Amino acid sequence: MGGGKIGTCSSSNGAQYSTWHFMTHASRFKKPGDYRTFELAGFSIILILGKDKQLRAFQNICRHRAYQVTKKECGSSTVLGCRYHGWSYDTTGRLIKAPEFESIAGFDKNMNGLWPIKLEVKDSMVFMNLDSSSQILDLELNESEQAFKRWDSKHVHCAVEWKVDCEFNWKLAAEDFSQLLAKENTRGLFNSLMAQRFKYQRRDFNLGHTATTRRLAFGTLLTMRLLPQSAAITTIHCSIYKNQPINDKVELEFESVKAEIQRGVQHLEQTQKRLLNGYGNFSKLQQEKYRQILKGHRDAEARLGQEIHPAAQKQHLTMGGKADDEFCRKLDNTLDGEGTACSASHRGLLDW
């Protein structure tokens, strides 16, 4: 996960934040105020197009009481208003309205904007990095960036998108796990999804280990993002982009792609069952790679004597604020059988 290259998304909280992740295509944002929300590594994220035509990313968390600013998957508004207590933000993340707070001495709106997330757009392909430090390097796409230029990825638009819920571990679908079983030459999902009639055109570029893009035909791109839900559940977010209008023939091709992906999913679900029943093993080389990533993160925490959360924003808390923060941490750890306070909020249990 070194440098600014697209890296892996680890199964551990701390190790999956310091890398670039492909999210979507810039064509999904047409006019100022257009926004879309995503979940990445347990964080709710909002991407929004500003009045200056700049695309920005923020944590989808109100700075007042940590309520989600929006729970919609997409929408359009140049003002994002939190429904909890009415705090509102503009498209640059700046706090523009804070009822009952404007008259409080020392309250500074400029210190309470939405927390930004690093974002880069390469030939309309949108990438984010959750690491809140200032030390991360720029995004490097290498060969895939040249491919985006050849494929003219700037001028395509989303023709269709869908999600597939799968009963397998996300690593089964990643390229580095193409040799899944010790005694079988099983190809990974990203290398075995498309119909044979696309074979002469196929050209894949994996965007890290959780996303891939493929040129299906001239002016037609497929992207797939792996969204780990648990150790045994993964959602695949698929999108097809085109630079031409859609007709009946194109729609039939889309259905063929969907069917091929579904067959690949079924194959990997069977692979997952065999692994759970003790038949075959993950690639030892890749397992060791992830083990070393996790070990490095754990060792760094041990040296500091505290947990490390690369995506956590640095806050300047008063003594009262620190006491409140500590109280919330304790609450987070005492909801036996009910998850954390954050998960309770996510399920809507704290919606008042």
TrEMBL record:
<dbReference type="GO" id="GO:0051537">
    <property type="term" value="F:2 iron, 2 sulfur cluster binding"/>
</dbReference>
<dbReference type="GO" id="GO:0016491">
    <property type="term" value="F:oxidoreductase activity"/>
</dbReference>
<feature type="domain" description="Rieske">
    <location>
        <begin position="20"/>
        <end position="128"/>
    </location>
</feature>
<dbReference type="InterPro" id="IPR017941">
    <property type="entry name" value="Rieske_2Fe-2S"/>
</dbReference>
<keyword id="KW-0001">2Fe-2S</keyword>
<dbReference type="InterPro" id="IPR036922">
    <property type="entry name" value="Rieske_2Fe-2S_sf"/>
</dbReference>
<keyword id="KW-0411">Iron-sulfur</keyword>
<dbReference type="InterPro" id="IPR001663">
    <property type="entry name" value="Rng_hydr_dOase-A"/>
</dbReference>
<keyword id="KW-0479">Metal-binding</keyword>
<dbReference type="Pfam" id="PF00355">
    <property type="entry name" value="Rieske"/>
</dbReference>
<keyword id="KW-0408">Iron</keyword>
<protein>
    <recommendedName>
        <fullName>Rieske domain-containing protein</fullName>
    </recommendedName>
</protein>
<keyword id="KW-0560">Oxidoreductase</keyword>
<dbReference type="GO" id="GO:0046872">
    <property type="term" value="F:metal ion binding"/>
</dbReference>
